[in-house]
Structure formats: C-alpha cells, structure tokens
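Researcher: Let's do a round of design. I'm pasting the structure tokens now; please hold your answer until I've finished.
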C-alpha cells in the first residue's frame, strides 16, 4: 500500500510539474532578427476548415542558434495572461529586427510554452523589453512566489483534511472496528456453544 501511495504521489507530482513548467512564464535573452506572418490551417469544432494568420518572431541566441516564437493573444481564456496586444508586440519585434549590426539590442522575451518541432509547436511571446545584455541575470520572482503559495496552500489543505479526518472520520472507523470486534467475539462464542452442544449430543 505504501508503494502504491508513493507511485500515485510521484505521478501526480510529475503531472503538476509538467503543467506548471509549460504554463508558467519564462524569459529568454535573444536578438530579434525578423518577423513573419504564417497562414495556418485549422479545424473548427463543427469540422469546418478554417485559415488564420499566426504572427511569429524569429530570435537568435547568444551562441548563434535560432529560436522562433508565436505571437498569439490569449484573450480572456486559458492561460490567464489576458494578452490582447499581439499586434503591438509584433511591431516592437519588427523595430528590434530593423536594427542591424553591432547596434542590434538584446531583448528579454517573456513567454510560455515549448518549442516542439515535431508538432510545429512554438512558445507564445507575451512581451518584449530591451535587456541589459546577453548575460543579464533573470530571477523568476513570479514563479518563486506562485509556487511557494501553491505549496503553502497544499500544506494547509493537507493539515485541514488530517484534522477533519481525526475529528470526524477516525471516530467512526474506530466505532466500526469495535463493532466488528464485538460481532466477531459473539460469533466465536456462538460457535463454541454450538460445538459444545454437538460434543455433548454425540459424546465427542
């Protein structure tokens, strides 16, 4: 039973960790080298084929490798970043891309999501700002505070459930156990009585 609890706990922890790692904001320091508008084919819930333009931002890491971000509004939906200014973000990215040579700035790209080439998945750029340089230290204070609050909430809920169990459920279980013990004892006494009656009847 202990191994099963550990296995369930590890699976739940892994699911939560992957969920948070995907949706919590992250930041990259890159140079913006271009922007694109890509026509995407989608399918509506009713099966109708739709086409939509996806804004993309092309970046370059300090080591020279490339990274591509999509630039989509999240609106009022999930995840709750309430991003409505993708056009403004795209314009800012284009301004950064127009600067060439050694004057091209390093940019902090705040985003969420993963780059998965197999599924043509791109992280979604939320905002852009000029970085101090490619070595600027970025401390994820928002993620630290949010995860700390989540852990604290889980611990408080766990403590509350334990108190609730000890106060209301545990006494019921103890009563059931006592009743089962008493019932078992009565059955045993009846069995001994019947056995004694058969012995006396048949001279056993």
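Researcher: That's everything. Go ahead.
Model: Designed sequence:
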């Amino acid at each position: 039973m202990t191994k099963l609890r550990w296995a369930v706990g590890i699976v739940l922890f892994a699911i939560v960790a992957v969920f948070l790692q995907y949706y919590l904001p992250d930041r990259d320091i890159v140079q913006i080298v271009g922007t694109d508008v890509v026509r995407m084919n989608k399918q509506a819930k009713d099966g109708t084929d739709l086409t939509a333009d996806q804004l993309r931002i092309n970046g370059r890491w300090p080591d020279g490798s490339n990274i591509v971000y999509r630039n989509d509004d999240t609106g009022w939906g999930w995840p709750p970043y309430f991003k409505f200014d993708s056009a403004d973000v795209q314009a800012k990215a284009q301004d950064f891309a127009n600067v060439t040579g050694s004057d091209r700035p390093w940019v902090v790209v705040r985003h969420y999501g993963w780059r998965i080439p197999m599924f043509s998945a791109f992280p979604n750029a939320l905002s852009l700002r000029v970085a101090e340089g490619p070595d600027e230290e970025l401390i994820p204070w928002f993620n630290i505070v949010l995860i700390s609050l989540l852990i604290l909430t889980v611990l408080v809920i766990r403590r509350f459930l334990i108190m609730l169990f000890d106060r209301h459920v545990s006494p019921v279980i103890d009563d059931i156990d006592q009743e089962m013990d008493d019932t078992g004892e009565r059955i045993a006494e009846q069995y001994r009585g019947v056995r004694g009656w058969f012995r006396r009847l048949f001279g056993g």
